[in-house]
Amino acid sequence: MASPSSRVRVAVVGTGGIVTGNHLTALRAHAERTELVAAVDVDSGRLRAFREAADAAGMAGVRGYDSLGAMLAEDRPDLVLIGTPPSLHREQTVAALEAGAWVWCEKPLCLSLAEFDAISAAEEASGAYAAAVAQHRYGSGAVHARELIAGGELGAPLVAHCQTTWYRDSAYYEVPWRGRWASEGGGPTMGHGIHQYDLLLHLLGDWSEIRAMAGRLVHDVESEDVSAAVVRFAGGAVATVVNSVLSPDEVSRIRVDCAEATVELTHLYGHRNEDWVYTPRPGLDDDGRLAAWRTPASDLPSSHAAQLGVLLDAYARGVRPPGSGPDARRTIEFAAALYKSAFTGRPVLAGEIVPGDPFHEAMHGNHPEWSPAR
Questions:
Q1: What are the extents of the domains in the chain?
Q2: From the centroid of its chain, how far is CA 309?
Q3: Is the Cβ–Cβ distance between 210 and 219 less than 8 Å?
Q4: How many Cβ atoms are within 10 Å of 238's Cβ, its own excluded?
Q5: Residue 32: phi, psi to the nearest 5?
Q6: Which PANTHER family did the record assign (predicted)?
Q7: Closest of 262, 255, 224, 259 to residue 240, by C-alpha
């Protein structure tokens, strides 16, 4: 690990839009703490464009590679940011961990619980950590809401709703890896709604049971294009979770009804404090609590930059970062359980998907109507 006084040496893997946009912006926001030293991409033109963008952003001298292995051997980065298609995440994350680097990987971190367990084994062997990008947790509004809920300020959580209803046309699925189990791991449950239900889990904690349905209603793809679930949380709250790419009126929404107030977030791809609304229960006297609920100390938008700051703090302390380990596994297990319930038609309990269960190996669980061999 780099010394506390030095900047963290960073490499990026994959130089498409998500890295050139979000990751490069995040690194620029933390320029005093990071040094971008290398970039990897098999597409030489895309790599060249990224290096030019990095140079324009004040990060000159980024070395380019077409091989992750060569980059890891020659540059020995402290932190690797991965923004490649999902099917590459597990292999690239493990390689970086084995080289002693920490990893910050775009969602989903991996395509199955089996892949997650391989990442966990690499973490344990190397002493490095791998975190998933989950930027919606890190805006000041989300931090504030979690503190209020966890501290009991809003009363016990009772009912919740989590909605990712977006729209994707047929052209979206012309990208070869989209909509396929082997390359994307699933449909909107894995590729779109994961941000919102990850935030829901972050707010409410462990889940205990899922009952779900899924459908392939419009798109000619292997995976689903809509899913819906009813979820019971360990604390007793009951929630609905809907993931869709069929919805012309696009919205991302989380609502949690607690005993003393409802907290609601409505946005699309990112949020600020103003996107969080608190409604007290009828008859509740406003003794100053409502103003405190609505007014976090700062207004930090949810963003890659916000999460990277937290990750760098953990790196400096040498501790496991949020969004890694059991915290990240809970989100992947939630997706696997949703698919298992939808495809088998029965409820799934937390902890029941273990090695030997087909849904541990793949999100489709080799279910006849949904596996690639259908």
A1: 8-133, 136-301+331-361
A2: 16
A3: no
A4: 13
A5: -75, -15
A6: D-GLUCOSIDE 3-DEHYDROGENASE, UDP-N-ACETYL-2-AMINO-2-DEOXY-D-GLUCURONATE OXIDASE
A7: 255
The class that CATH gives domain 8-133 is: alpha beta
pLDDT in tens, 34-81: 999 999 999 999 999 999 999 999 999 999 999 999 999 999 999 999
Element (H, E) at 315: helix 304-317
Write down the residue that tokens 């608190």 correspond to.
278
The H helix count followed by the E strand count for the chain is: 14, 14
Tally of residues, the chain:
374
Fold classification of 136-301+331-361 is: Dihydrodipicolinate Reductase; domain 2 (3.30.360)
Rg (CA), the chain: 21
pLDDT tens, residue by residue, 249-281: 999 999 999 999 999 999 999 999 999 999 999
Residues 97 and 123 sit within 8 Å (Cβ to Cβ) = yes
d(CA 307, CA 139): 8
Give the Cβ contact number of residue 176 at 10 Å: 9
Q: Where are the beta strands (DSSP E) in the chain?
A: 8-13, 34-40, 63-65, 79-82, 102-105, 130-132, 157-167, 207-215, 226-233, 238-244, 246-258, 261-267, 276-280, 348-349
The residue assigned the tokens 């999460």 is: 307
All residues at 6 or more sequence positions from 326 whose CB lies less than 8 Å from its CB, including other chains: none
Other Cβ atoms less than 10 A from the Cβ of 89: the count is 27
Q: Which residues contact 188 (CB under 8 A, 6 or more apart)?
A: 164, 166, 224, 225, 226, 227, 243, 244, 245
Neighbours of 67 (CB within 10 A): 11
Global model pTM greater than 0.70:
yes
Q: For residue 148, which of 272, 292, 288, 255 has the smallest C-alpha distance? A: 292
How far from each other are the two terminal CA atoms of the chain, in whole angstroms? 48
